[in-house]
Write a structure and sequence with these properties.
Length: about 325
């Protein structure tokens, strides 16, 4: 069976061709709109919707030719129905539905977060729930228990900013461009993580909740109380201290949730799961506690089409595909 996965919830226009049985990613190209939004320091919904509209056909054609298949080989389409930006979601959904109608095949609306959590499964397809999941992306930071049958129980989420937002907003304050997550990771490599102590919120609280808005304020104060030259000269050490604070918060609450649930498998997904320090710190803890830890490939950590098709394939295998008539939904939590 050949699947076309389409992702358009935010600022990546992504299409992928996957084969199931045996599972294989045949292609997974994307167009990132980063340049278009960097000017504004964040994603502008209208600009994003227009860029999706301009690129989606090209990226889809690229996915098909790279996979060395033809359009008529596609058996089913999976697209992101939410959460995300309304305009961008509608572009992907309309394209998916139109193409599905033309080809006489079904188009299934998939939850973007379920997609992020299915990305690790592409590398380790023997993963089976129950397991603990950590979603760390541009818009979400949450710990969710996943049980067989796509049953999700929320253990805790952020009260304000997401981890990716914390990276991006702090990065802009220290003079980096949006999105700053990957840049902070690069600048921080081999630098002094103890250079400045940035706050870690809610650490003493017995829950799985996160908060990053205080960190943002602390970074702003820090930047204001130092000269631009000082910030520039010590950028690596500041980035390392920042990364240390964010990763520390994520790891502490993940350990809390592992203890709380007694789960022996942890799956991480979302853009921030590309972060090397997070991989290293969670890796150390899980290794010493006999916990299986699964991350997506670096490419599949951020938004891509393969993760959307992956979620659909996981569902198809247990007969739990959604109705083809589902509407797009900007707000679509995995668990309340
Ligand atoms: P959501 O999935 O919540 O709807 P999104 O789709 O916009 O949000 P993703 O594409 O999953 O988010 O992730 C983008 C985020 O990941 C950005 O905030 C970016 O800074 C961050 N990010 C990407 N690479 C890294 C990295 N190496 N280290 C830290 N953060 C990173
Ligand atoms: Mg993005
Ligand atoms: Fe995402």
């Amino acid at each position: 069976m050949i699947w076309l996965g389409i992702e358009s919830s935010c600022d990546e226009t992504a299409c992928a061709i996957l084969r199931d049985d045996p599972l294989e990613i045949l292609s997974n190209p994307l167009y990132s709109q980063i340049q278009e939004h960097a000017l504004y320091g964040g994603v502008v919904p209208e600009v994003a919707a227009r860029a999706h509209l301009e690129k989606i056909t090209t990226i889809c054609q690229e996915a098909i030719s790279e996979a060395k298949i033809s359009l008529s080989d596609i058996d089913a389409i999976a697209f992101t129905r939410g959460p995300g930006l309304m305009g961008p979601l509608l572009v992907g959904a309309s394209f998916a539905r139109g193409l599905a109608r033309d080809l006489g095949i079904p188009a299934y609306g998939i939850n973007h977060l379920e997609g992020h959590l299915s990305a690790a499964w592409l590398t380790e397809p023997d993963l089976e729930p129950p397991y603990l999941t950590l979603t760390v992306s541009g818009g979400h930071t949450e710990l969710v228990l996943e049980e067989p049958g796509f049953r999700y129980t929320l253990l805790g989420r952020t009260r304000d900013d997401a981890a990716g937002e914390a990276f991006d907003k702090s990065g802009i304050l220290i003079g980096l461009k949006y999105p700053a997550g990957a840049a902070i990771g690069k600048l921080a490599a081999g630098k002094n993580r103890k250079f400045h102590h940035f706050p870690r919120a809610l650490q003493s609280e017995d829950n799985g909740e996160f908060s990053f808005s205080g960190l943002k304020t602390a970074v702003r104060r820090y930047v204001e109380s130092n000269t631009p030259e000082f910030i520039q000269e010590n950028l690596g050490d500041i980035a390392a201290s920042l990364e240390d604070a964010i990763v520390d918060s994520l790891v502490a609450k993940t350990i809390w949730a592992l203890k709380k649930t007694g789960m022996k498998t942890l799956i991480v997904g979302g853009g921030v799961s590309a972060n090397h320090l997070l991989r290293e710190r969670l890796g150390k803890y899980c290794e010493s506690h006999g916990i299986r830890l699964a991350f997506p490939t670096l490419y599949n950590s951020t938004d891509n089409g393969a993760m959307i098709a992956a979620a659909a394939i996981r569902r198809a295998r247990v007969g739990m595909l959604p109705e083809t008539s589902t509407e797009v939904k900007p707000w679509l939590p995995l668990a309340l």
